[in-house]
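Protocol step 4 of 5: obtain the predicted structure for the target chain.
Materials: sequence only (see below). No template structures provided, no constraints applied. The aim of this step is simply to have a reference model before the mutagenesis design in step 5. Sequence pasted as it appears in the construct record:
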Amino acid sequence: MAELALFFGSDDGNTEAVAHRIQQRFGESVIDLHDIAHATQLDFSGYDKFILGIPTWDFGQIQSDWEEFWSDIAEVDFKGKIVALYGLGDQFGYGDFFLDAMGMLHDVVLANGGEIVGHWSTATYEFDASKACIQGQDKFVGLGIDEDQQPELTGDRLNRWCRQLVLEFDLDIEVADLDD
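Step 4 output (structure tokens):
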């Protein structure tokens, strides 16, 4: 069993592709990947550190596999667990709902006792509203990825965020900076 579990939901493949890109940076021995479509609450046991990936669909909707698992994730006990989030969205096409699903997932994890790490600056994004913004700060609750409008920034964002997570998860590893 790896040190981290990364759970993702993905309809069109972008969130899954980002999960694999994160795993490449940390190494397969460090991160176990789990598609939330096939996950159970038991899959969360045995881990103390998590990365959760969720895209926002249309007008602030939760991705379908996460939506089906929503009542289950609300039952997962995150007390004493450290959780980082990443979300995908389209800041220009859906700028009023950018990364909303990540904000909603954050609220569930926080309500269940989880410690959230991996906050990310909003500085290089253009959007009107987001449930993923931390009130009073220029930060998201996790890493924001926009494969529709800013795919050229994803690799560098992942490199920097993964290095940040090594510190915040207190891991004794080095992550690979990749040019993908």
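Step 4 remarks: Strands lie at 4-8, 31-35, 49-57, 61-62, 82-88, 115-117, 120-121, 139-140, 143-145. The mean pLDDT is 95.
Proceed to step 5.
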